[in-house]
Structure formats: structure tokens, C-alpha cells
């Protein structure tokens, strides 16, 4: 089972303020533990939304909206992608994450769909052939 641990943005992360070295050190130690357990698939921080854009569709038309985006609580500042055996294991690892906000904040954990969750079809098989969306293997496994 794959899960994404989503780190919510803060006013500081949206302003491009870098976290203190102590948080980088705590996050590095946390991710090293998960690497040793063989469950980390990927992890990264995201640049502020001011450097991003959104693509919107309305009535069949596409438009581009440049950041920044107003609702900080709706934005993502980073993520960690893990592969574990159960929801309970994902919860246990997520609870160990250092507080990325250093104050009031939150992370969100969401399970990813696997190709096996969808009815078999030619399109699903195309994704499988590309190696997209299926049971990923942890690095080093």
C-alpha cells in the first residue's frame, strides 16, 4: 500500500522562508529511519505557489492561472511517499514525523490508488506497461 504524507503550507513556506537547520536535521533523521525500514519511495519540498501555476478547465476551455494562491491552508509545501503493509503502519510512521510547521500546523496522509483498484481495461494495462500507478517497489529492494 502506498501513502502520501502531505505537508501543508504555512505563511513562512509560502514566503520562501527556509526552515531552521534543526528542522532539516530532524527531518533527515526521520527519513533516514524510513529509508532503513525500506518504505520511502520519494520525498521533497515544494517551492512557494508564487513560482507555480494552475491550469483550469471551464466549459471546455483551458486557462492558466499564475501563483501565488490565496488560501495557504489549502496548499502543499512538501510530501513523502511511502510503501507500507497497512494503514496502521502508515499512521505509525506519520505520527513520528517532526512538526514541519514548528508551531500550529498539520500533515495529511492519503492512500494512493493502485492499478489493481480499477477494473481491468486496455487503458489500465497501458499504465501498467509504462510502470505508472502500480505497486511500486521501494528503492534498494
At a glance:
With 141 residues, the chain is an alpha+beta fold. It has helices spanning 11-14, 21-36, 87-95, 122-130, and strands at residues 2-8, 40-45, 53-58, 61-66, 76-83, 107-111. A hairpin with a 2-residue loop joins strand 3 (53-58) and strand 4.
Comma- or semicolon-separated keywords:
27% strand; four-stranded antiparallel beta sheet; two-stranded antiparallel ribbon; 141 residues; 4 helices; 6 strands; disordered C terminus; alpha+beta; single chain
Structural class: alpha+beta
Question: In this structure, how is the largest beta sheet organized?
Answer: 4 strands, antiparallel
> Tally of extended strands?
6
Beta strand %: 25-35%
Low confidence ranges? 136-141
Query: Please, what is the oligomeric state?
Result: single chain
N- to C-terminal distance: 15 Å
- Give the SSE order as H and E letters: EHHEEEEHEH
**What is the overall pLDDT average?**
91
**What is the C-alpha radius of gyration, as a whole number of Å?**
17 Å
Helix residue percentage: 25-40%
Q: What is the count of DSSP helices, taking H or I runs of 4+ residues?
A: 4
- Order of neighbouring strands in the sheet with most strands: 2-5-1-6
Shape: flat
Description:
The chain is of the alpha+beta class. The chain is 27% helix and 27% strand. It has helices at 11-14, 21-36, 87-95, 122-130, and strands spanning 2-8, 40-45, 53-58, 61-66, 76-83, 107-111. The strands form two sheets. The protein has a four-stranded antiparallel sheet with strand order 2-5-1-6, with helices on one face. Strands 3-4 form a two-stranded antiparallel sheet. Residues 136-141 have low confidence and may be disordered.
